[in-house]
What does this fold into?
Amino acid sequence: MRGPHNIWRLVRTGATMERTGAMGVVLDAMDAPPMLRAAARILGWPFKWLGYSGDPTMPPVTRALTALGPAYIKFGQILSTRPDVVGADLAKQLQVLQDKLPPFPVVVAKKTIETELQHPVEEIFSEFSEPVAAASIAQVHRARLVDDGREVAVKVLRPGIERAFRKDVDAFYFAADMIELLSPASRRLRPRDVIEHFEGVVLGELDLRMETSAAAEFAANTAGDEGFQVPQVEWFLSGRRAMALGWAEGIALNDLDAIDAAGHDRRALAERVLQLFLRHALRDGYFHGDMHQGNLKVAPNGDLIALDFGIMGTIDEYTRRVYAEILFGFIRKDYRRVAEVHFEAGYVPADQDVDAFARALRSVGEPIFDLDASRMSMGRLLNHLFEVTERFGMETRTELILLQRTMVVVEGVARSLDPHMNIWRVAQPVVEDYIKQNVGPRALLNDLSRTLAVLSRIGPRLPEMAEAALTDRKGEPQRPAQPTYWQALLYAAIGGGLVALGVWIGVVI
It folds into this structure.
């Protein structure tokens, strides 16, 4: 329940950060300015005794986030992929949050499975291991099927996870409301909408039937991608709180020493991670939204294996073209075109100066274009981007938050594998290929053919629809000088269809 009582939750958050020693570590890692440091310590220190103590065997930040709960752990997972933002030492500590959290008892997991699948565990599995991985929402067991002896990975939600998430999200909503109230300038960032988006993503993770469906769709989309695997879906073992996929043997992408020992090419893996993400986002409009190292493995044959499909992202075709043109413009250093695309898509208010925005984009792109990842400060880059968006009145677009967040995470994963990777060079072939297929004459032909396909489906009803639009219910003619909104829309659709048909015939002939 959202309300002032959430002040207690936020106070306890700061108190926990102080009590565990995490506050100072985070402020140092983020190179926080003196004013922010002073405010954080003044607000947190008096309430230090109210904070959770956490597990004293863990490093401070990991200790604080695990004590605070699953929503905080999610943010920690994102930071674990950004050593350039929080520092290499802290990022390495936070990797524990990806799949090495304290597990819950195997007895509880078996009881959950029996409740969901309506069969005793012994009737389904001949072997069932202790937890092999435990994350913020669920844990995974290795098991063997009674029927055919195949090995599977069984995922089971943590007990009480739904209630824990709702409690955290309620506090986040309250914090967002306070931020908007106390800082009107922050409203363009739409903090409440951001939290609403986060809540929707998390709620999707809490129904494993949806994850099973997502895994099946992702597998179908990527079946032809060389060097990439998605485990086999086990539909008959799919429930709301428990599910199973085929067992994937491989080395976790955060185990760099094991990857090197196995002889895998880290540079090639880094390029493949980034290119596969771009290909899935641009080509399919359906991408893995949680691609941190804990959800990726390297198979013995060098293939990348994706795991955990609870967070998946979708992008409509128009947005894909916009993003591809933006990336392509940066790659070609055509900042004027990048600026124009932002205005055409409505990302920048129309009353802003397109030339000034192009110059601002140049100031972002030029300093980093020829740099490898080891020489690029992502913290400085993000700070600069924030200043640009504030100057030109760009609002947060909640429908793109997952894409933008995943892009940052994927770039961080690729950077951890190859610190010297040039992201522009790696992205170029994927973006150029998409542009060739979807922007220009070929895209026009595809759009026209799809328009004709739609018209062919409703073709038999066009006369009836036109007559209905031109006459009222009594059969009396409408005054053509005052068409309704829906009539105008229908006229535009029919006219556009006829024009498209004429152009299509002209091209074919």
Q: What stands out?
A: The two ends are 65 Å apart (CA to CA). The longest strand covers residues 125-134. The CA atoms of residues 251 and 502 lie 56 Å apart.
